[in-house]
Each structure stands twice: as C-alpha cells, then as structure tokens.
Amino acid sequence: MIGNREYLSRQNTMDSDEDAIVPLLDDMSATVIGVSSQTLVSTTSTARKLPQYVAALTATLGAFALGTALAWSSPALPKLMKGGEAKFKIEQYQESWISSLLTLGAAAIALPIGYCMDWIGRKLTMIILAVPFVMGWALIVWATNVDMLYAGRFFCGMSGGAFAVVAPVYIGETAQKDIRGTLGTYFQLMICGGILFAYIVGSYLSVFWFSIICGIIPIIFAAGILAIPESPAFLLAKGKVDEARKALTWLRGKEYALEAELEEMKLTADNAAESQKNVNIFAALRTRASINALIISLGLMVFQQLSGINAVIFNTTDIFEAAQVEDSSVSTIVVGAVQLVATFISTLVVDRFGRRVLLILSDAVMSLCSVALGVYFYLQSTHADVSNLTWLPLTSMCIFIIVFSLGYGPVPWFIVGELYPAEVKKIASPISSITNWLLAFVVTKFFNDFSGKHIAFWSFAVISFIGVLFVFFVVIETKGKSLEEIQRELGSRWKSRKNKVDVEGRE
Q1: Tens of pLDDT along 196-213?
Q2: Which among 216, 291, 248, 253 has a CA at the least distance from the CA of 21?
Q3: How far apart are CA 146 and CA 411, in angstroms?
Q4: Which domains does the chain have, with CATH numbers?
C-alpha cells in the first residue's frame, strides 16, 4: 500500500555492455574485502542493540503519522458528510477528492525527496518534513471551506510520502546486519499502528479533536528525531569521518570497537560514489535486466493498488455503513487490528515461504473476497433481503486485509528493493513509488464514483485474478538469492526463452 521501502548504497561494478552489468554485493549482507569476518564477529558481539531499536522506533513515528493520515478519511468523512461538524457544506463529488488528494501529494514528493536527503541528510530531512505535516493538519482542523481541506490533505500526503522514502533508508543505514531485517519491518507495522489508532480515536472523538491529535504526532516525531544521530553512512559519504564515528558510537555503545565497521561503511560509500561516476544511468536503464526489473516492479505496484486496498482503508466505515452493519465503528476497528496482526505475521513468514507463493495466495484470496463483497452489494442494490448476511462484509474485509497484509502489502516493496542494482535504483525506485501513489489516487478518487459498489468490487476481483497470472508467469523468486544471482536471472530469462523459440523454429 504504502510508500518506498529502501534506498541503500551498494557495492557494484558496471560497464556499458548490458551483459556485463552485474552488481557485486548487496550492502545489507556484504562483507567488504579487507575486513576479516573474524574481526567483524568479535566487534559486533559487543555492540549495544537498544540504541538501534530506539533510533528505528523514533524514525518510524513518521510512518505512524502517515498511517493516521491514510485512515483519517474513514471515520472523519462520514461525520462531515452528515453535517453538524463541518462549518461548510461538502458535496458528494468532493468526498472522493478529500480522500484521494493525499496520494497525489505523496506521488509529487517521491522523486525530489531522494535528492533532498542526499543533499542535507536523513535526519534534517525528517525534521523539516514535520513542518508541512503540521501545516496540513492545521488546514484540516481550521478549514472554513473545502479548498482548505484539499490543501491540508495534499500537504499531509507530501510529508507522509516523503517519510515512506527517508525512514527506511535511515533504518537500513543505522542498524546492524543481524537486526536490520527486524528493524526494517517496523515501518510497515507503524503504518498499520497509525491506521488502527485513527480508526479508534476517530470513532469516538469529534473530527476537530481527532485532527488535533493527529497533528500533534508529527511534532512529537520531530522532537524525537533531534535526539538521535545522523546516519553514519551519509556522514561518511560527505567526508565527515569524525562525526560518523560519534554517530556510530551512539548507536553501538562506547564499549563497541567500531573501527572495523566504520572502515567497511567507508569503503562501501567510496565504491558507491565511484560506481555512480562511471555509470551512464540511462544506458543502465536500457539493459535487459533493468527493463525486466521495471516490468516486474511496476506490475506489482499496479496489481497491489488495483486490488482496491486503499479504497477499503480510506472508506472502511462508509463501506460498513452502506452494508448496514449494526456497529460500523467497531467493525472498522476490528479490521484495523486484523491488519496490524497480519502485517506482523508477514514479517515472520516472508523468508520462509518465498515471495511468489505469498503473492499468488494473497491475490487469489483477495479476488474471492472482492467477489463476495460484490455479491452482497449487488443483492442490496436489488432490494433483496440481506439482513441475514450482515456478517459477510466484515468477514470478507477481514480476510481481504489478512491476505493483503501477508502478501501484496509488504512483498512488492521487498522485491523492488531486491530487483534494482544501485546504479539505477536512484531513478527506478522512485518510479515504482510514484506509480504506486498515482494508482492509489485513481482507486480512491473513483471508488465512490462507481455506479454501484458491487461494480467496484467485481472490478477489483477481476484485476486481482489477472494479478495471479502475472505473478505466476512473470515474477521471479528472489528468496535466498544474492543480488548478483537476481541480476543474472533478470538479464537472461527472456533471452533464453527467445533462443529456445528460435531453435524450435529452425527444427
């Protein structure tokens, strides 16, 4: 659903010939030549991990803030549309704009934020992002017309979308290798935590106080960021070795013999900088491996968003009210809790079952759930008696959220982080992120414009089924493979098929 997962520097070599473009090692698992594995083991064992958990949790408060912004429209819009809380009239067609403009703001920031955090640093970028976030909530809280609501949602989207890029980078660059995966999952978990928080608070408070509380979260986040250090990797890339040493000491503890890791990080930064100088980024994007990676990553983003997930998240309360569920607020909270638990479980199984299996299972079950929801709303539109079927929307949506959170929620972001070498990642990853947010805008904008909710859900069902076929025939398995192996497979799979067809044709 939500945002850009990583932007980590990698050791790579590359020349103009497309078959020679093979990255050497992923920096998340690489041991730099010149630093013995024995030295790394001996120093790593003495490092403190608590400061790293503190830094990761602090950085992911931005994800929590994003989650509240994503889910805000679900409990808030029904109250505003009923009148009484809004100081102005909101037309029916404006409801979808209020929901969806957040995603346009996120799409607008995806590309420039990468250059910004490389220029001024990860820490300062996150602090500055709190300003438009608070400004957005202020516009929402004291809105006197619908245009102020539009602007507020757009500003919140810009800050939230930027956090989705910067925070995973910061975590990846500050955590030790043995806990980096665990800390990396905090971002998605915190988004789900923010969504659940918004469902609970928004259900029982007025829109005014609900929005005030949401606006306080970025302020708390910015204050917390002041207390944690800048990324040592960024400092080394800027040549600030002494500052990088101080930051690493804060993260690992004073007892930690950090020189070996510091040297490793410095070599990684130097190699990445040298690689960037020697590579023509546009030539790299035209290689077979990069083209196939782009097809897979963009395809996964398309099927992730066109499954209808954000239409569900943004309109959960409205969907339950339309389904005449007895207590729509409680049902919405149940859905949020289920999403949080399922996302946590996905972090435990993604490396056990593999990416393709989870994606296929996720899309197949989501398709069935969308069919069931479509049937319910179709029967309701024909004025059939559905009083005995009020359990169906809650059950279907809970199962939908569970399987999405197990597969199509986190896995596409894992794969995007694994498909691209560092030489093209600076351009290719934002392209995937922008595609994701723009599609989220399309879905949330036009969901309420469908002639009937049954048509919307049946459309999602068809697209999810096509997504199963896409994963089966196009997506490669990346589980347990090094970056080099993934690049070789991407660069050879279509060539080998073409050669096989040519041979069979000659025979």
Answers
A1: 999 899 988 999 999 999
A2: 291
A3: 36
A4: 35-278 (1.20.1250.20), 281-507 (1.20.1250.20)
